[in-house]
Amino acid sequence: MATSSVSKGCFVFKPNLKKRKTSVPIEEYFNKGKNESEDSKLRFETYQLIWQQMKSETEQLQEELNKNLFDSLIKFLQKSHSGFQKNSRDWGCQIKLREIPTAALILDMKHFLQKLCSQLMDCHVDVESKEQEKDIQKKIHCSMDFLSSWYMNVTQKMDPGRPGKKRTSSSQWQSPPVVLILKDMESFTTKVLQDFIIVSSQHLHEFPLILIFGIATSPIIIHRLLPHAVSSLLCIEIFQSLSCKEHLTTVFDKLLLTTQFPFKLSEKVLQILISIFLYYDFSIQNFIKGLQLSLLEHFYSQPLSVLCCNLPEAKGRINFLSDNQCENIRRLPSFRRYVEKQATEKQVALLTNERFLKEETQSLLENLQVYHTNYFLILRCLHQFTSSLPKYPLGRQIRELYCTCLEKNIWDSEEYASALQLLRMLAKDELMTILQKCFNVLKSSSEKQLGSSAKRIEELLAQFQSLDAEAKEEEDASGSQSKGLQKTDLYHLQKSLLEMKELRRTGKKQTKFELLREKVVNFIDGLVREHLLPPETQPLHEVVYFTAAHTLHEHLNAAPRIALHTALNNPYYYLKNEALKSEEGCIPNVAPDICIAYKLHLECSRLINLVDWSEAFATVVTAGEKTDASSVTSEERNEIIHARFIRAVSELELLGFVKPTKRKTDHVARLTWGGC
Question: Which residue intervals define the domain Origin recognition complex subunit 3 insertion in the entry (predicted)?
Answer without folding.
Answer: 318-550
